[in-house]
Input
Amino acid sequence: MFDDVASEQHIRREREAARLLRKSRWWQNAIAKAQCYYCTQVIEKAAATMDHVVPVARGGRSTPGNVVVACKSCNTQKRDLTAADWLLYLESLKASQAPAKL
Output
């Protein structure tokens, strides 16, 4: 489906596409809602970051179907995980922090 490691050419091309996407009306509408896709925290428009559901480094594309609004913290911590992997990780953290049921 997706490469484990994308070529440098792919990464350069998709980073340029992401820069153009940030200037689009689609992105402006997306950040107007300003809620992190991962932690659901409401964030200010200026603090919203663009995250690739399937990371560019793993073959993802810079298209509206593969890009979500994320807070800086989630975006930085997610790194090159897919969104599915990151959400599973967050769920495991919640489960490990939940009080034990008697």
